[in-house]
């Protein structure tokens, strides 16, 4: 998969995508992340990328022209089709289901806004979808883009060392994850639920499912309300 990111801070995107699982996915050539700076495509002595908005008011708006030239350079570098996603608090909320859809695509172009946002004429012409990572406002789209890159990057085939771990993540089955305990460490088995030491794999699976259901019920009842629970799940929740 290839992800191109249009941002005034390409170093931040490159650096964060070089760490951990996503860094390893890049080393394994499962993913490439490229940063593009609209300032490199701005004209004039000051290479301006923003201006005051029509109608007045506080703050600056990102100019359409440098963004347009930058996006043209991204498309020229690789003409394969790719949806253009704008990171924005006005966007549709990112979910694990959306992450899975995005991870299946061969390519994505992410746009990071700064200031009050982008000139709406550019958005209307070029943006396929706006994505928000939550109901709060960041000072720019870079952290949101890094979230998308991480969530999508770790789902690339071969990115995770344990093939199982992505399937067992929180949200993959609509529930929150169960608690985990390390085998080694100073505490030994102290505080570890006995069932995890029993070697009874069916009982362990039931315990984990019950923990997931219980945590979701306590912390995110909204998720549970949207799920069609099986009879076995309802029995575990009631037990
Ligand atoms: N840019 C600023 N705030 C954001 C948010 N919550 N999600 C995505 N992009 C953003």
What labels would you give this structure?
alpha/beta, binds adenine, Alpha/beta knot, 239 residues
Question: What is the count of distinct domains?
Answer: 2
**Rg value:** 22 Å
Which structural class is indicated by helix and strand composition?
alpha/beta
Q: Quick check: average pLDDT?
A: 94
Strand % is 5-15%
| Percentage of residues assigned to helices | 25-40%
Number of DSSP-assigned strands: 7
Major beta sheet, strand line-up: 2-1-6-5-7
Low-confidence stretches: none
Structural shape: elongated
Secondary structure tally, helices: 9
**Hetero groups bound?**
adenine
CATH superfamily grouping of the largest domain: SPOUT methyltransferase, trefoil knot domain
Encode the helix/strand succession as letters.
Answer: EHHEEEHEHEHEHHHH
Q: Biggest sheet: strands, sense, closure?
A: 5 strands, parallel
Distance between the termini: 45 Å
* CATH-defined architecture of the largest domain: 3-Layer(aba) Sandwich
By CATH, the topology of the largest domain is: Alpha/beta knot
Q: What does the model show?
A:
This protein has helices at 10-16, 20-27, 64-77, 96-103, 120-126, 142-153, 201-219, 221-226, 231-238; strands at 2-6, 32-36, 50-51, 61-62, 84-93, 107-112, 129-132. Strands 2-1-6-5-7 form a five-stranded parallel sheet. A two-stranded antiparallel ribbon has the order 3-4. The protein folds into two domains: 2-153, SPOUT methyltransferase, trefoil knot domain (Alpha/beta knot); 168-239, Orthogonal Bundle (Trp Operon Repressor, Chain A), CATH 1.10.1270.20. It is built from nine helices and seven strands. It is 37% helix and 14% strand. It is an alpha/beta fold and 239 residues long. β5 (84-93), α4 and β6 form a beta-alpha-beta unit. It starts with a strand and ends with a helix. Bound molecules: adenine (ADE). The site of adenine has 11 residues, from β5.
């Amino acid at each position: 998969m290839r992800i191109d990111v249009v941002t005034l801070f390409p170093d931040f995107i490159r650096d964060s995508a070089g760490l951990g699982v996503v860094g390893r996915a890049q080393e394994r050539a499962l993913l490439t992340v490229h940063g593009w700076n609209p300032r490199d495509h701005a004209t004039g002595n000051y290479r301006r990328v923003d201006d005051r908005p029509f109608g007045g008011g506080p703050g600056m708006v990102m100019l359409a022209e440098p963004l347009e030239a930058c996006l043209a350079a991204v498309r020229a570098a690789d003409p394969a089709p790719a949806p253009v996603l704008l990171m924005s608090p006005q966007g549709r909320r990112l979910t694990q289901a959306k992450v899975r859809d995005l991870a299946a695509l061969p390519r994505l172009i992410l746009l990071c806004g700064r200031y009050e946002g982008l000139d709406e004429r550019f958005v209307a012409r070029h943006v396929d979808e706006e994505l928000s990572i939550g109901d709060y406002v960041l000072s720019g789209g870079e952290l949101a883009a890094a979230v998308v890159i991480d969530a999508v990057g770790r789902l690339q085939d071969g990115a995770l060392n344990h093939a199982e771990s992505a399937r067992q993540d929180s949200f993959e089955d609509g529930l929150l994850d169960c608690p985990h305990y390390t085998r080694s460490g100073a505490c030994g088995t102290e505080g570890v639920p006995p069932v995890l030491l029993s070697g009874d794999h069916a009982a362990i699976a039931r315990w984990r499912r019950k923990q997931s259901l219980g945590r979701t019920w306590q912390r995110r009842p909204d998720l549970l309300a949207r799920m069609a629970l099986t009879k076995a799940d309802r029995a575990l929740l009631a037990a």
